[in-house]
Automatic annotation (TrEMBL):
Superkingdom of origin: Bacteria
Pfam families in alphabetical order: cNMP_binding (PF00027)
Organism expressing this protein natively: Xanthocytophaga agilis
Gene3D superfamilies the UniProt entry points to: Jelly Rolls (2.60.120.10)
Listed InterPro entries: cNMP-bd_dom, cNMP-bd_dom_sf, RmlC-like_jellyroll
Protein name, entry field: Crp/Fnr family transcriptional regulator
CDD domains: CAP_ED (cd00038)
Domain Cyclic nucleotide-binding: 30-113
Amino acid sequence: MKAFLDYILQFGNLNKHQTDFIMSKAKELELRKEEYFSEAGKIPRYVGFVLEGVVRFCYYNNKGEEITNYFVDENNFISDQQKFETQVAASDYIQAVTDCKLLVFSKKDWDEIGNTIVGWDNITGLILKNCLLKTIERRSPLVSEDATTRYLSFIEQFPTIINRVPLSYVASYLGITQQSLSRIRKNIR
């Protein structure tokens, strides 16, 4: 819980009464490895904050291949925010890669926090901006770098994740085959 409060307080000032109110709306959710936090075709139910574990964002391309497009670990928010806010069906999956513990907020509770705490929209806006910038910063190099450089960048950007997720997910994230990833890993040792 402290990690969650420390995280949101980076983006704005809240008093004890406000943080107590926010925490009163939070619920703990445990996801087992491979369970879904959010599924394509369904309306996202929660905004979550990862206390323990790793989740991935993925989708299926037009060939039916599963593509991992992002990883999120501890002390970060997870949400299909646009679909959550508008309450329309998601097009991506958010799946637990490891067993996870999350703090979650339902749409009703999230809206109640926003309607009660003055400045909450500013805080969440800054959090969203921060998440988006991180995503762009991590994804942009993948377009122009060769596979080895992409893998080395991945290790640098996700140092706590590399040994916690299946190599097939890493390969998919990097846009290469698992065999290519194995060769790259063998060559850089």
